[in-house]
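[job 0412] stage=fold_complex status=start
inputs:
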Amino acid sequence: MSEWQPRILAILCNWCSYAGADLAGVSRMQYPPSIRVVRIPCSGRVDPLFIMKSLQSGFDGVLVSGCHPGDCHYISGNYVARRKFAVLKPLLEFIGLEPNRVQFSWISAGEGDRFAKVVTKITEDIRELGPATRLVKKT
Amino acid sequence: MNTTNELRKSIKALIAEKKVDLFLAWEKGSLPLTATPLFVSTEDQADRAVFDVTCGNNLSIYFTKDRKQFANRKVGIAVKGCDARSVVLNILEKQIQRENVVIVGVPCDGVLDRKKVLAKTDGREVLELIDNGETVTVKGNGFDLLLNRNEILSSSCLACTYPDAQEYDVFIGDARGEVPNESRLKEIHDFQALSASERWDKTRNEYERCIRCYACRNVCPSCYCNVCFVDQNDPKWIGSTCDYTDTLIFHVIRNLHVAGRCVECGACQRACPMDIDLLMLNRKVAMEVKDRFGDIAGLDINGKPAMSDFREDEKQKFIMG
Amino acid sequence: MNMVRLDKKKFGDFILELSVEHAVYAPGNTGGKTDFIPVSSEDEINLKTLVTDLSPKGIFFPHSEVLYEYDTEGIRVPEKEAGKPIAVWGMRGCDSRSLLMLNKVFGSAIQMPDNKNFQDPYWKEKYDSSVIFGSACNMPQSTCFCNWFGDGPHSREGMDVFVVDAGDHYLMEPVSDKGSNILGKLTCLTDSLEGDAEAALKLASEAESTMVPPMDVNGLGELLNDLYDEPVWEDISAKCINCGACTFSCPTCHCYDIQDEGKGSSGKRIRIWDSCMFPIFTMEASGHNPRALSSQRVRQRVMHKYSYFLEKYGDFLCTGCGRCITVCPVNLDIREVLKTINVYNRQGITNG
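[job 0412] stage=fold_complex status=done
writing structure:
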């Protein structure tokens, strides 16, 4: 049987982080093949429900990434998002989910190397945690 | 001073002077441990109004339940400290207009949680409740118990910081003033001291009892979406089963939806037919909101709900480096 | 077969003996609440509980029940685990009667358009083989109103064995053939003594005397039909918050929704309790909702219980257990609702 590989959902904003991922790709930077990308217009679009639903359907981790504060294409989307994440993350830890299952980052369109680093880091974190079990719905 | 009498007088005056068309208050319920909402539109009906330890309902839910009923009407409402904060939130969120509401604050010493009383009677039915101030007497078939008030108060009341309405037009009796109370945080700190897997087991044990009746949501003044996310079926976000992952996602997301908007009135916890400790998560979220953004829901009528606001220089240590 | 005795000291043995061939359910604690739960020994049973917080309908009609699973191979009905028939201990008359009502919906053959008779197999599989040890109710609560429907605390309807708690022992009397059979097999029982039957009757009349005199429900179905379009429903429903606490704690409410939960190429079809209190209950695909208003939904619940079911099956869909009264977050008391309707109609007639 092949070794378990983390499956991570990466929710990336269209204007910065998705472009950053693109840049990492065209620059042929190496990062683990652990992420599945969903492109969204803005990190402000991320409903905490997306994250919960991903964990319930069996993703081992979730990465949400948007533009750096001040760089939002829609001026303030990521500021509003930041408040949401700032409450969501401690709440998930509070109910007993492992802290590193869900992580957030800011990656600009020019930061292909940063994207590769962030994906490498979260993959390592989640590999250390092992497969998700707690919020996964048994089917 | 008799609060009930004063409340009745006040309602009568408001109706007589045509300052309100309708007044939301409480009346004696059909069971000894619970009052029931009362809609007053005539002076005679005002004589049914009461205020005592059984008046747990947060009446501001009715502003958003049936908007038609309140359209173009002046509505009066009797409020405890927590209820007043809900009214303020409803005003802030443009569900009602300040000029259309007459807020009557009542001095609140806390309301009881039926489940706590029943726990004291060992499951025997309570047929009568007498409020003696510091203590309450509960009577039933073959028993007569004298209980300390603190033993039966709703846990939201035991940890209440703002017992008085902060926004009101009329205040009946003596205000209690701010009661600095950090006891609600102790529970959270104790819980946080547990390991992640202990916390998970406890959370799971609590929330797997949920039967999805949505009493917590419907009794919550901050939950008034036309279509709740659990009721959306295209796409269907979460299952409707009692599987603990489904119930937990429902409660966690509901908590986040009322983040910065929950006034910790405890109505959800008192309404829960399964005795789930719903307030715990609400308090955790309220604590985060206060610590991070400095906001306390429903205190400032000129403010903005925390989650629709931001500052550029907020701490963001939780973001990956 | 006559009345037999079970010494309370032998109650543990009785449960163990019953468990050999049955999956036993009895009132027990879940969190701070009481419900009918699977038990394997005496210790798990809460014998002190009055009416349990949740009704026993969940034993035969669970909140979420997988009807079948599917994948690319085909469709499978999930296999039963133990396969033992169900035995329930401690079901009051109000609860055992509710099973008869539910059986009218799920258990009786319904003539389908294609002339086939349909019965609900999931219900029948559990209910038909079950044995109900009913419990005579010696201490009716103030919320009990079973006497409104011609019943009483010592009703035996829907039970297989009628059990009276007579102090240090239980008196058991078979009500059905199934009941006789099982009592014949159990070894921990002893013959009843002289005076036992009288003692049971005395307890029954004592219990009945504690109940509040009933409202007359004769003609209630027609009254309700006459009142369908009256504005009284708006007053009645004004304080209702439309949660499902009443529906989900009710022993007779049986509406359900069927949902598919699929993932990839497999999934399952699940039957889940639903409530007519929820706006989405009648939401149509077009977006139109025939019961968009709270007053319409409250009316539906009352009409179904006291008019429609009566018309269709000849019985009220209410046993007077009082759970909805106890559980309601805003204390909307169904007895008050029915009284309001009764009075309102009388006025309506005199006013023409």
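[job 0412] summary: Chain C has a mean pLDDT of 92.
[job 0412] exit 0
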